[in-house]
Amino acid sequence: MSAVTVSFNPNFKDMNLTRKRYRVFKGSAGSGKSVNVAQDYVIKLSDSRYKGANLLCIRKVNDTNRNSTYAELQAAINRIYGDQVDDYWDMPQSRLSIKHKSTGNEVIFRGVNDARDREKLKSINFAHGKLTWIWVEEATELQESDIDILDDRLRGILDNPNLYYQMTFTFNPVSATHWIKGKYFDTEHEDIITNHSTYLMNRFIDDAYHRRMMLRKERDPDGYKIYGLGEWGELGGTILSNYTVHDFDTSFAMFDSMTFGQDFGFNHANAILTVGFKDGEIFICNEIYVHEKDTGEIIALADGKLDKRIPMYCDSAEPDRIKTWRNAGYKASAVVKEPGSVNAQIDWLKKHKIHIHPSCSNTIKEMQQWKWKHDSKTNTYTDEPVNFFDDAMAALRYAVEGMRKGPTFEF
Ligand SMILES: Nc1ncnc2c1ncn2[C@@H]1O[C@H](COP(=O)(O)OP(=O)(O)OP(=O)(O)O)[C@@H](O)[C@H]1O
Ligand SMILES: [Mg+2]
Questions:
Q1: Which residue among 160, 295, 314, 372 is least enclosed by CB atoms within 10 Å?
Q2: Ligand with smallest separation from the Cα of 364
Q3: Which ligand is nearest to the CA of 196?
Q4: Residue 294 gets which letter from DSSP?
Q5: Which residue has the higher pLDDT, 406 or 102?
Q6: Alpha-carbon distance 35 to 68, whole Å?
Q7: Which strand ranges, in their side-by-side order, compose the sheet holding 106-111?
C-alpha cells in the first residue's frame, strides 16, 4: 500500500515497543488508551514479521465488544488504510471478526460473563498461527480469576521467533482496593510494564472535553480524581446496582409499553433513551447521546430512529425545546418536578430490574459512575446524587415517570 502516517500520542511509545508479557494502561477518561492500543494492534497484525500472531479482545460482557474493541479497531483500520481497506482487510461485521488478507492474522472477540463464556475460551483456534495477544478492555470489570484463565491460554512454543505472548489491559482506576492494583502496580516484576495517562497528555482531545472535565472537577471531585487525573480512587456510594448488560430484542412488539426519556443538554450531553417495560422490568433499548448539538440537529439525528407514536418525557426546564419536538411530530411533554421527586424516582428504579442493551455505551458508563454525594466531614454518603455525568440517568428517570406515577403530566 502507499505510505501512510499513523499518529500516536508519544507518551505510549514504550508501551507500544515492549514485549513484556503484561502491558497495563491505567488512565483517565479520554487519555487515548483505547485508540492507541487499537492502532498499535492494527499495525502489528498487518506486519509480515508478526505472521502467525492473533488477537483476542475481551470485555466482561461479550456484546459490548461491538461498540468498543471492534469499533475501535475498525476505526483505526479505516483511519490508517482509507480507501484501501478492502484490499488489505476482511471485516465482516455480521460475524464480528477481523482478518488481515496477506498476513492471515486475525482478531476475535469474547466475553467472560458466565460459565458458558469461559467454556468458549477453551476452544479458540485460528487458521494460521496461535493466540498470541489478548486485549482486555475496561479490565476492572473482570475478576482476577478471569484473567488467570486468559493468561493460561498464552502458552507453548511459537514457530515464528519474532512472536511473543502479551496481555494488554486498559481501564480507569476505579478503586484503590481493586485486585488489578495489587497484581500489577504494587508488585514490581520484570514481566510487567505499567503506564499512567490523562486526557491532558492526549494531543487529540478537543477544548469542549477540557471544559467538561473542569466542570467535573468542580462538581464531582472524587470522580475527577479517577476520570480526570487517572489516579486510584474509590467509587463508593453507587446509586444503582440492579442492572445487567445483555443483548435483547428491542422491537416495539416485545414490550407491554415503551417511552422515551429526554434530558436536554448542549455542553452536557443531550440524552434520549428508548425504554421498554415488560412484566415489571425495565429495558433500556437505545440511546441518543450527543454534545454541542442544537435541537434541530438532534431532531435530524432522531429521524427514522425514534418512533413518533411513543410518548417522550422531557426535562421541564426547557419548554421551548419541548415545543420544537412537538412541532416535529413527537409526543413530547414535560415531567413535573416536585420536591423529593428525584429520590422517589431513584427508589422506584431500585425496585425494578433494569436491562441495558450493549449498544447503550454512554448509559452503561453513567450507570457505573452514578453515585451519592460524599460528605468528607462525616465520611458518609448523603442522599443527594452527584450532579455530573448524569444526563442518561436523568433521561431514565423521566422515561419511567409514567410507570411510576400514572399519567400526571403537563401537556
Ligand atoms: N492517536 C490518536 N489519533 C487520533 N485521535 C485520537 C488518538 N488518540 C486519542 N484520540 C482522540 O481522543 C479520544 C479519546 O481517546 P480514547 O477513547 O482512546 O481514550 P481512553 O483513554 O480509551 O478513554 P476512556 O478511559 O474513557 O475509555 C478519541 O475518541 C479520539 O477522538
Ligand atoms: Mg477507552
A1: 160
A2: 1
A3: 1
A4: -
A5: 102
A6: 10
A7: 89-90, 98-100, 106-111, 55-59, 133-137, 166-171, 22-27, 192-197
Tell me the pLDDT tens digit for each residue of 278-316: 999 999 999 999 999 999 999 999 999 999 999 999 999
d(CA 235, CA 363): 17
Q: What is the rounded average pLDDT of the residues 147-172?
A: 96
User: 3-state DSSP call for residue 108?
Assistant: strand
Length of the chain as a residue count: 411
Cell numbers placing 27 = 488512565
DSSP string covering 93-161: TTTT-EEETTT--EEEEEE-SSHHHHHHGGG---SSS---EEEEETGGGS-HHHHHHHHHTS-S--SST
Q: Is 127 exposed, middle or buried (0-12, 13-18, 19+ CB in 10 A)?
A: exposed
Report residue 335 CA to chain centroid gap: 28
pLDDT for residue 95: 86
Taking the CA of residue 35 as reference, the ligand 1 atom at the shortest distance is 18
Question: If you search the block for the grid coordinates 413530547, which residue do you land on?
Answer: 332
Which of 144, 145, 154, 168 lies closest to 124, judged by CA?
A: 154
**AA letter at 143:** Q
pLDDT in tens, 355-375: 999 999 999 999 999 999 988
Distance 37 CA to ligand 2 centre (A): 9
Instruction: Compute φ and ψ for 64, nearest 5 degrees.
Output: -80, -10
Q: Minimum mean pLDDT among 264-273, 373-382, 395-404: which range? A: 373-382
Report the SS3 class of residue 231: coil
**Alpha carbon of 170 to ligand 2 centroid (Å):** 7
How close is the Cα of 9 to the center of ligand 1, in Å? Answer: 10
Per-residue pLDDT reduced to its tens digit, 86-125: 999 999 888 899 999 999 999 999 999 999 999 999 889 8
- Grid cell 429520590 is found at 343
Amino acid symbol at 248:
F
HSE on the CB side for 169, CA within 13 Å? Answer: 31
Catalogue all structural domains in the chain, each as residue range(s) with its CATH number: 10-205 (3.40.50.300), 243-405 (3.30.420.280)
> Residue 408's closest CA among 316, 271, 303, 272?
316
Q: Ligand 1 site: residues with CB under 6 angstroms?
A: 7-9, 27, 29-36, 39, 172, 202, 204-205
pLDDT digits (tens, 9 = 90+) for 53-67: 999 999 999 999 999
Quick one: residue 129, left, alpha or beta (phi over 0 = left, psi -120 to 50 = alpha)? left
